[in-house]
Amino acid sequence: MNQVIKCPLCQSVSSPFSDGKYCLCEQCGGIFLPRNQYPDAQAEKARYEEHNNDINDLRYQQFVSPITTAVMKTFSTVHKGLDFGAGTGPVISKVLNDHGYSIQQYDPYFHPYPELLSSTYDYIVSCEVIEHFFEPLEEFRLLKRLLNPGGALFCMTNLYHDGIHFPTWYYRRDPTHVFIYQQKTLFWIKEEVQFSTLKICDKHFEFWK
After folding, report:
1. Three-state DSSP class for 137?
2. What residues are paired with 178 via a beta bridge?
3. At what angle do helices 91-98 and 65-74 cross, to 10 degrees?
4. In angstroms, rounded to a whole number, what is the distance separating the alpha carbons of residues 14 and 11?
5. Cα separation of 92 and 64, whole Å?
6. Which of 38-47, 81-90, 174-183 has the lowest mean pLDDT?
7. How do residues 126-150 score in pLDDT, each as one tens digit?
8. Most CB atoms within 10 A, among 82, 87, 94, 117?
9. Do the Cβ atoms of 28 and 10 come closer than 8 Å?
């Protein structure tokens, strides 16, 4: 990999990482695929359709419970939410709807309602989504703009740390995981996008406007 590879998040020059398939940005800590390895739209959608998630599966509901629990502890049924990147099985929306919450679903492939991106929300949930961002800085700026003042973005993704053996890590085997985050990356986003607060919890993290 002799060409200059710039980080899609912070635009810093980055270096080959681990086995050389991914690159590492020393500036923001992002780990990413070079753009020439991004899946095309057909391959990306086909990969998502393989997930076949059942929103009534109690194990699936338990998996997303860090987010649903956090939302219900922080916001009430009068608040307005957005499930960003809801996918084929919008289980977070299902759980919150069952508790009387009002939440819309947006996904460029499976819930393509761009008019939802012209509104604003008290909270946004994004579960196993941000690792698919081709343009992560633009996406986080969009998500902040979609939040009302005092609103929160709740995210779940697997963060890389030094205790993980990257070449065999299951998370990097998915060809649609084009951008992988470390805690350092989240703090860079918090400062660059000017979120007021970043809260890193055990299984999820929150950006507050």
Report:
1. helix
2. none
3. 40
4. 9
5. 7
6. 38-47
7. 999 999 999 999 999 999 999 999 9
8. 82
9. yes
Number of Cβ atoms within 10 Å of the Cβ of 104: 19
Task: List the structure tokens of 124.
Answer: 């946004």
User: How high is the pLDDT of residue 1?
Assistant: 45
Interatomic CA distance for residues 127 and 71, integer angstroms: 13
Q: Residue 200 corresponds to which tokens in the numbers above? A: 């890193």
Hey, is 197 helix, strand or coil?
A: strand
- Amino acid at site 172: R
Report the Cα–Cα distance between both ends of the chain, in Å, rounded.
39
> SS3 for 65?
helix
Q: What is the DSSP letter of 40?
A: P
| pTM > 0.90: yes or no | yes
The number of residues in the chain equals 209
Strand partners, 152: 123, 208
Q: Contact, 8 vs 134, CB < 8 A?
A: yes
Residue that has been written with the tokens 């902040």 in this structure:
144
Alpha-carbon dihedral 168, 171, 176, 179, rounded to 10 degrees: -100
User: 197: alpha, beta or left, given left = phi > 0 and alpha = psi -120 to 50?
Assistant: beta
Q: Tokens 């997303």 identify what position?
A: 64
